[in-house]
UniProtKB/TrEMBL annotation:
InterPro entries recorded: Class_I_gatase-like
Organism annotation: Jaculus jaculus (Lesser Egyptian jerboa)
Tree of life domain: Eukaryota
Cell compartment(s), UniProt: Mitochondrion
GO cellular component, as recorded: mitochondrion
SUPFAM superfamilies recorded: Class I glutamine amidotransferase-like (SSF52317)
Keywords: Mitochondrion, Transit peptide
Database matches in PANTHER family: ES1 PROTEIN HOMOLOG, MITOCHONDRIAL, GLUTAMINE AMIDOTRANSFERASE-LIKE CLASS 1 DOMAIN-CONTAINING PROTEIN 3, MITOCHONDRIAL-RELATED
The protein's name in its UniProt record: Glutamine amidotransferase like class 1 domain containing 3A
Amino acid sequence: KALGPRFDSPVLRSSQLHKVAHVLSGCGVYDGTEIHEASAILVHLSRGGAEVQIFAPDVPQMHVIDHTKGQPSESESRNVLAESARIARGKITSLAQLSATNHDAAIFPGGFGAAKNLSTFAVDGKDCKVNKEVERVMKEFHGAGKPIGLCCIAPVLAAKVIRGVEVTVGHEQEEGGKWPYAGTAEAIKALGAKHCVKAHVDQKNKVVTTPAFMCETALHHIHDGIGVMVKKVLELAGK
């Protein structure tokens, strides 16, 4: 008797896999994508049987941070797409080519790149602008009723683009340093979105958010929280 499904079993047919767009913002927490978040998303999507395509905008980074010092490297400039390709193991596509018609869901990891390269939130706060391709993609998925997952600081993108969306960036008080970026919640509200103090599923807008590294906690808790977000996104994608 065969062990497990055959390769021609319906559960393994590529036509039934969820096709998920994973949108990056560079490589490195302080000037690009938070690598652990991006990796966790990929692991959980793999476990969920999703077919993943990785995208990033083909634009210059806001700046380059020396991660050993936490300070800008004034003489350096890098490209968001080229840096994101490091995480994608070279298999990456310009965000300009992403269309919601070809995918069932989109997921955005955090890292300061979401606030520096995908938007100007790091500089402009509630008055920020969102990269035109990021805005287009988010509006396309939202308009098509397809789910969007975001973690860490990335929910600010949805707060800016999707009117009245419900998201979380964690708690609204620092709680002795456990939530060092708690002030972001007020900016979320100023953008016209509703802030929730824990991982949240906005059923109406099909937006799923989790705090990830907005919280000072053990890595496995962050990994598990991202797993719940990915699972909810795939459930909302349905078939």
